[in-house]
């Protein structure tokens, strides 16, 4: 008997479940695996034998996960030790997978999840274990190396730019419009904040200033930028990533605590209010509104990109092909082959080229003033937000599935 198990970890996206369903559907078609199991709450759940046989679930309910946002299989942020120092977790997981006759583990996630895939594949190569570990990409941050874009990002970008259009219209109704500041996610990279440049009315950009983690943040320069825009327009719309830093690499809004997650990431929040205080204390205006977009960026199926949804399913389905060909320690990737018309192909690359590495927003796509992005970046972004998924509704609301 040859079985597989699918699990998710890290932060969710609007389309992460489409990757799981992509694997599930491809196996219904190919019947390569005898059974498909779901590992609930990632590798941590597998360690606790929190495993569901997909045959025990309603098939239509599982398929409907494709239009259900967030992590339908649950998630975790479980950091594995170096197996050369402590192999307990590795041994236990392998024993459990053997018990279920698992041939391949498909792990859907971002940077930290790919670290897990790499560690397990390396462990197996140094033992007699024949189980294959294959990474399926997801992250709204779009910061995985080796792939043109990450499933989850296109939908987040579409949501951000749409919300900016709507909030711009709301904040622009008064004669004295003041200043509006939007804070996006993005600890280390500015892809999400940069996507705000897509927001337009009558082909005119709505955002005046964009600040990304890739560029050192200087308070004096920021105040100068805002003062100039406000003097010209009597209003300003600003977007900043939560991860903007000073020249020393310190987050400008890092909480004054020792709080970190299990991967050592600082707990962030409050950039928009920090910038508001700078503006008010500089006597530019006291009329400043802020909006921290928060988790809506990663779970808004009602504004998902159809391109994003399809790609998420495709990289999942491609995982089956990778397993059939005997690959392990690899991640499915998206290669852009043409920008206009937009074309791409799904391929793969070695996990060691991705794990614990970061794809930053290109500095050549940032303007000379370091407060906006270039047309080249727009050409990259536009194809990723196209299309609207045809989702089912029930009682006037999107119809979502829960399987556990």
From TrEMBL:
Its cofactor is Mg(2+). Mg(2+) binds at residue 111. InterPro entries: ATP_PFK, PFKA, Phosphofructokinase_dom, PKF_sf, PPi-PFK. It is found in: Cytoplasm. Residues 4-307 form the Phosphofructokinase domain. The record marks 112 as: Important for catalytic activity and substrate specificity. Non-allosteric. It catalyses: beta-D-fructose 6-phosphate + diphosphate = beta-D-fructose 1,6-bisphosphate + phosphate + H(+). Its main location: cytoplasm. It holds the Pfam family PFK. It is an enzyme of class 2 (transferase). The keyword Cell membrane does not apply. The record marks 138 as: Important for catalytic activity. GO terms for cellular component: cytoplasm. The active site is at 141 (proton acceptor). Diphosphate binds at residue 11. Substrate binds at residues 139-141, 185-187, 242. Belongs to the phosphofructokinase type A (PFKA) family. PPi-dependent PFK group II subfamily. Clade 'B2' sub-subfamily. Homodimer. Catalyzes the phosphorylation of D-fructose 6-phosphate, the first committing step of glycolysis. Uses inorganic phosphate (PPi) as phosphoryl donor instead of ATP like common ATP-dependent phosphofructokinases (ATP-PFKs), which renders the reaction reversible, and can thus function both in glycolysis and gluconeogenesis. Consistently, PPi-PFK can replace the enzymes of both the forward (ATP-PFK) and reverse (fructose-bisphosphatase (FBPase)) reactions. This is Pyrophosphate--fructose 6-phosphate 1-phosphotransferase. It comes from Clostridioides difficile (Peptoclostridium difficile). The gene is pfp.
